[in-house]
Structure formats: C-alpha cells, structure tokens
Amino acid sequence: MKSSIALPQVIESYEPLVIAISARALFDMEKENAIFEEDGLKAYRKYQRDNENQLLSKGTAFHLVFGLLQLNEISNNSEEKFVKVVIMSNNSPDLSLRIYKSIEYYKLDINQAVFSSGAPLHDYFSSFNVDLFLSRSETDVSAAINDGFAAAVLYSPPEGFSPNENEIRIAFDGDAVLFSEDSEKIYKQHGLEAFIEHERQKAKEPLPDGPFAKLLKTLSELQKKEEIGRKKLQLALVTARSNATHERVIRTFREWDIHVDQAFFLGGMPKDKILQKFKPHIFFDDQDVHVTPASKVTPSGKVPYRTSN
Fold first, then answer.
1. How far is the C-alpha of 237 from the C-alpha of 265, rounded, in Å?
2. pLDDT tens-digit series, residues 120-163
3. How far apart are CA 298 and CA 206, in angstroms?
C-alpha cells in the first residue's frame, strides 16, 4: 500500500550575485575626494555635512548596479533576490547620510553597508560572500585581489554614456582577467611567436582560472535563470588574442560549461571601437593601454595583478 503522506516540495535555492561597491564607484564623488586629499579630513567632513542634502551624481558603476538590481523585480519568487549590493565605504558612519539619501532618490534596492572610518574593507568581504568589488581606490582593490576576490579599479565614467535599458552587457578581457596571467607572461618574456606556439601546444588543456573566472561562472548561472536568460544578460570576451590562439579559449569555456554570447579575437587591434559598438555596462581589462581608451566610450575597470603578501 502506497503511503499517502505528501513529501515536502524541494525548492531550488540560489545564492545571489553579491557586489561590494565603494560610494565613489557608485556616485560621482571626485570633488569630495579632491577636498579630502588636498585639504584634509576636517575640510572634507565640513563639506559633506554642509552638502548633506545635495544629491550625488551617477558614478562609473551606477548603470551596472541599477541594471543588475532591476533583475530582482522579475523574479518569480518575491523573496528570492538574484543580486545584492553592499556599499563598502571608507567614510565614517557620521558622513553616510548623503549617500543614503542618494540611494533612496535613485530607488536603488541597497540594504547593506559598511562604513569603516578608514579601516581595511576587504576584511569583511567573506562575511558578505562578495563576488565582485568595485572601487576608485587602487589600494583597496589590490588588497581585495590579494585576498582572492574579483576586484577592479574604476576609471572616470565616459561622457554621455547611455546603456541599453533592456539588457545588461558585461565584457571581459581574457588573460590575467578571466584566465590566469601564465600565458601572458610567456608573451611578455618571449614574444608573440613563442606565445602562439605555447597556446597551440596547450590547445586542448583548459586555461587556469584568473581572478574573474568565478565571477563569470556566477554570472553564467544567473543567466540560466528562466526569468533572465540571454535577453536580459549578455556576456562577452574582448581579447587581444588572435584566431591563432582561440582554440584553447573556446575549450576552456566548454570545460567551465559557459556559453559566452559574443567573443572578439582582435589580434592586437584597439578594443575601444568594438566596445563603442557593443556598449557594455562595464568592461574589465588588466592593462592601462586598453582600459584608458575604453573608459572614454564605456564604463571600465582595471584588474591589478596579484602580489605576494
């Protein structure tokens, strides 16, 4: 006789994408930062209090954060969030009101924050299960990279940037970003021919993970949600590699079970013209020679190399 006891329904759980972001990366606070660096903490504190009711303008990562948070509104489960954003600020709690008022004005669903009064921020990343840290501070980003977190130093936002409002686009460089810097070292030390020969010999061997590999895998899982799909989230590779070294990259994505929507193998061609057409909400690269021109056409961040502690 079959039991009539109903088995509990198994609900698939999903760990949200967690982005930690500095206030300067989310909002334009370069004037305030200049006051701090040139005139000191006392002048900075006075300026912030005097302008407490003045809303902050949009910063480099604003469009990315706004777009990702919009994904929460299409969830089939009102209690499930696809994306969480945590403000990670070196400000003191006393100077947080202007930031909170700006968050409320722009209707950003941000409910968590850390105001450290200058104490290291990366110590708290594991507590929030951070997947990505975005900041204007190279010191803070380098500390995050050294601790094993995906992180990027954001450049100033491009003038007049207007992202696609129907989908989020994120673009990545390959070597030293998605993949380890091992192959790039061969190119730097021994030249292009040695690099091509090495990659051809290793064509069927997946590339080692780089600092943003886990983030790409998390975004890929987010993309697989039926409410999101490829119509809401597009992932692209924009690499200086040529077709001569593309096989190892493709096989690596297969090994990771990731389908990149668009891939550009540029063979050393400048990346900014491609990015101007693709219009990602953000582009990540490890070299200033690429990030600087890219930042003129799309929000961009530099991924620093990991250093030994």
1. 8
2. 999 999 999 999 999 999 999 999 999 999 999 999 999 989 88
3. 30
Which residues on neighbouring strands pair with residue 93, listed in sequence order?
none
Catalytic member of 173, 175, 272, 286: 173
Strand boundaries in the chain, DSSP class E: 17-21, 27-28, 57-58, 83-89, 112-115, 132-135, 150-154, 168-172, 233-239, 262-265, 282-285, 300-302
Active site residue 209: no
**CB neighbours of 45 closer than 8 A, spacing ≥ 6?**
92, 94, 95
List the domains of the chain with CATH numbers.
17-154 (3.40.50.1000), 168-302 (3.40.50.1000)
- Range 283-309 average pLDDT: 93
Burial of 213 (0-12, 13-18, 19+ CB in 10 A): buried
Please state the rounded mean pLDDT for residues 212-234: 93
CA–CA separation, 281 and 162 (whole Å): 9
168 φ, ψ to 5°? -100, 130
- Using an 8 Å Cβ cutoff, are 26 and 86 in contact? no
